[in-house]
Amino acid sequence: MYKNRKAIKALLIFYVIILAIMLVKAPSFFSVDNAMDILLNVSTTAIAALGMLCVLLVGDIDVSVGAILAACCTTTGLLAKAGMPLIVVIAGSMLVGIVLGLVNGMIVTILKLDAIVATLGLLSIYRGLLIIITKGSWINGLPKNILNLGQGRAFGIPIPVYIMILVAVIMWFVLNRTEWGRNFYAVGSNPASARLSGINVRKTRIIAFAVCGVLVGLAASIYTTRYGGIQSNTGKGWEMTLISSAVVGGASTVGGEGDVSGVFLGALLISALGTVLVFFGIDALWEQAVQGLIIFVSVASYAIDFKKLKSRFVKGGAEND
Amino acid sequence: MDGQKYVLKTDKIYKSFGGNHVLKGIDFELKEGEIQALLGINGAGKSTLIKIISGALSQDQGKVIIDGERTKNLTPAKAQALGVATIYQETSLYPQLSVLENLFVGKRLKKNFQLDWKRMEEIAEQTFQRLGVKINLYEKMANLGKASAQLVEIAKALSMDAKILIMDEPTASLSKQETEMLFNIVRKLKEEGTSIIYISHRMEEIFQITDRVTVMRDGKIIGTKETKDATTDWVTNSMLGKEVDKELDKKDRKTGEVLLDVKGLTKANIFQNISFQVHRGEIVVLSGLVGAGRTEVMRAIFGIDPYDSGEITFKGEPIKKHTWDVIQQGIVMVPEDRGRQGLVKEISAAENMVLAAFPTLSKHGFRDKKKEAQRVEEQVKGLLLNPPTAKLDGGSYSGGNQQKVVIGKWLNTDPELLILDEPTCGVDVGAKMEIYRLIIKLAEEGRGILIVSSDIEETQMIADRIIVMRQGMIAGELTEDFEKNAILGMALAGKEA
Amino acid sequence: MIKKLTKNNFFILLVVLAIVMGVMSNLSDYFLTPLYLLNATRFISETSLIGLGMTLVILTGGIDLSVGSMMALSSVCLGLFCQIGIPSILAVVFSLLIGALGGMLNGYVVCKLKLPALIVTLATMELFRGIALGISGGSAIAIPENLYFLGQGDIGPLPVQLVVTTLVYIIVAVFIYKTNFGVYLKSIGYNEEVAVFSGIRVTWNKVKAYVLSGFFAALLGVLFTCRVSSAKADYGNNYEMDAITIAVFGGASLAGGKVSFAGAYIAAIIIVMIRLGLTTAAIQTEVQSVIIGLILILAVAFNNFVASRKTVEM
């Protein structure tokens, strides 16, 4: 129930500053079309970042999400091309996601490996297997009706945005109002104690990985249908985008801390950055540097205890040399 | 009250870890509505026994009978459902979560398929009311102090209506007042029919609060007595299996010139205007209640934390700012928390013992392993380390011997002033006396000794001079007649001496 | 005796290496020829260099995800310095300094702000790569021919990389095993608070580890650039993963305090040999990545298994 208000406050200040500058420098930024574009961009990132949040909450990390995305995108593509109805396509993609998530969770917890090492190994295994299976071919030319999922609109708002809102509401409910969700926090905060409280720690961690997998699967369906096709290297480096979104949003990499609103704001900042830079007139080449700088500045600002810093400058005797 | 009804019985419990027999046939009985002390030195098997009763470990052989029914495959969850609540020594709280949530992890209330936070809040409020404590339910646990954390632990056990409450050193981090408050709560629980297993190293508490005393040694129960029939000697002798030599040879020592001179040391909201001196060959004990700011003063002197104003001089020279320079000046500190601050459990005792001495042991930064081995060997002999080798990992020694390793680390730097913060906390009776003798020997060698101790008996035994702190200030000083009431009087009320 | 040896991580690594060499030499006839192996040392040296820096940082209980990006940044800097007419030697020195500075930034932020190294170096990973992309415009920069020696030349019969990396390993080994630096880093990795109370300069020592990591990454950037004759901002992608694999496979625990430098070196040889061997045998890179992933997981799982057996017996 405790919230990292510091992260959310800092992010809101960021947004106010960015928006204020935009208002002066590029008023055209404030168009409905642009807003919809940004929301559409953030939807896949936000959905999957909420999955990453679960894994971070239990004190683990999953760096194989990029490979899971690629696997799920391929599933989406293949099912769509086989003429399956939309619901089957999405379900298939989520199923692949959940299976890979379960594999991750089981390998991490049963073999007792560091999550970062295990998922690192699994990242190369998944990617390798995927390319061996698909022979590295790109998937194009998906049926039109399927593309509606990623490209369609309802009442002027892109469909992925509705899905994102739905996922956010569900995740908020799960994380705040259900036993499972609160167990994520307890396990990440103090695993030994959680075990003594009767929580099945291993199961909870596996579930967190599975939730991450299933949300990546959902994001993959949107991703594939939005771009109408996928390349064999889809999702490369995507784990960093998701981890950054969660961390900028106030999630802790040591577990037990983070919430839906923070992660949403974090994902929004990370994925809207490209658009913002274009309006600033900054070359896209610098996007990654600015992104790195923002992650750096934001996490540093959460860590600095400004009150303490102030008192250190005020008092004299502390530097007693 | 039916005194003959047993809420808990264990029948010939055996447990071993990889060939090491920890419990050898324990028959333990707990009556309804009694407070029973469970005593024993570290390694006697107390922790293992309570872990088996609370379902955290499973026994190799034997039965656990709760409320007349034999339990099978006890898990923590099952034990809780049967009314067994355990307050473990190492706090089992969740630092990132709120106080409210901490109370309910593992037993949250539900309504209509979702968690009923409102109801949980009500129960939490009632529980804290029952304890007579005001606490913000939505405060993050990490922001609370040790004492509040202990109270939350107790509230956690209370909120589940425990029939059997196991308390493992519940007062270790509590102040005198907080301990009194805790005792009132414990007595109230007893009246309500709760049975309590009480584990503590503090003898006076045992006699103050418990009805019966059970002593364990080497995985066996040595004996159980009504508390009113038990004596301190019986308890300590049963714990150790031998008579303890409680004689300390406090020869008249000549105290020399002033070593440490602290003048007007102040840190806002922590301690104010602290002034005192420590002489060569003198043992000064800084007494007071937990939370009086004593550790904080020591940390400031040792360069761990900054301070706002004041002057500290050592042998007439101003003290340096950084810990590594302070050590070079000749001041060392044995911290309170051995496991977290004193020694690295994962490296050998030998490596621990040279850790701080490299500036004098190494030549141009290069290690002289021969010299290191020689120094370590000297310490192992001089400190009577048991087992008498420094090759084992630091964590595998007993509490008292870990403390010796930490002291050995500092003796290798040949310090002139030793600060010891609660040096015998969690150390069993036998090792305690060895540490006292060691401290006195160090003072005889002309070193100054500054000890922070909350143990009045210990203070009376070893101090040459007692300084009492209360609420961040010096409440008074005693140079003779170390009467318990005089010390406590100053610690509580602050009568000027 | 055998029981004792199987508990020794280093011995296990040697066995794995022997098996790998055996399998690879069966897959390809070229594999076990001296010329081939001598050439392989170029790759081994480069890879082991980045593993060395990571091992040092993991020893302190941290992690450095920014090494791959730092490699790219130093590469691009080398190219740009040469382009604006700075003499080659100075350009190399400046590039290495940038690596050390980047490491210093990582180290100070980790220590002073008490942030998890994972997050800090994740941010600088993006930052360094971003700067490399930005200043180079994303295109390749040619370097002067007099620098080719560093990546393609030989000293006597030995490739330059082999000589450089061997020297670096010897210097680090001396510092770790013969001076207090090793014990300090180990204590910090196991228990930082004890180190503080023991008067160890925790920040100073930790920053040194990060500086070395950044420096080695920059050194790799220079060697690599000189080998392929041009500087580019996309070098070293995912190298942080290789580095972690090497350190952990070599016997490091990410919790800090426990590492093996010799183990890391052997691990680097194994990984490079598998890659080269499979490439020579014309096995596609995807299969290689599956095999390397499997080896990583099995190796770490095996390490854990051995470690848990050890503690039970104690």
Shape of chain B: globular
* Count of alpha/pi helices of chain C: 14
Cα Rg of chain B: 24 Å
Shape of chain C: globular
Q: Which CATH class of the largest domain in chain B is shown?
A: Alpha Beta
Mean pLDDT of chain C: 87
Spatial arrangement of strands, main beta sheet of chain B: 7-10-11-4-12-13
How much beta of chain C, percentage-wise?
under 5%
What topology, given as strand order, has the largest sheet of chain C? Answer: 1-4
Low-confidence stretches of chain B: none
Rg of chain C over CA atoms, rounded to whole Å, is: 20 Å
Let me know the average pLDDT of chain B. Answer: 85
Tally of contiguous helical segments of chain B = 18
Integer count of domains of chain B: 2
By DSSP, the count of extended strands of chain B is 23
Helical residues, percent of chain B: 25-40%
In N-to-C order, the SSE pattern of chain C is: HHHHHHEHEEHHHHEHHH
Note down, in words, how this protein is organized.
The complex is a heterotrimer of chains A (321), B (497) and C (314). Chain A has helices at 5-25, 32-57, 65-81, 86-110, 115-134, 144-151, 159-177, 179-189, 191-196, 201-227, 238-248, 260-280, 287-303, 306-314, and strands spanning 153-154, 157-158. Chain A is mainly α and 321 residues long. Chain A has a single domain (30-302), classed as ABC transporter involved in vitamin B12 uptake, BtuC. Chain A has a two-stranded antiparallel sheet with strand order 1-2. In chain A, helix 2 (32-57) packs across helix 11 (238-248) and helix 6 (144-151) packs across helix 10. Residues 309-321 of chain A have low confidence and may be disordered. Chain B is an alpha/beta fold. Chain B has 18 helices and 23 strands. In chain B, the strands form five sheets. In chain B, strands 7-10-11-4-12-13 form a six-stranded mixed β-sheet, with helices on both faces. Chain B has a six-stranded mixed β-sheet with strand order 19-20-21-16-22-23, with helices on both faces. By secondary structure, chain C is mainly α. Chain C has a domain at 37-236 and 252-259. Chain C contains 14 helices and four strands. The model of chain C has no long low-confidence stretch (mean pLDDT 87). The chains are: A mainly alpha (321), B alpha/beta (497), C mainly alpha (314). Chains A and C meet through helix 5, helix 11 and helix 13 of A and helix 6, helix 12 and helix 14 of C.
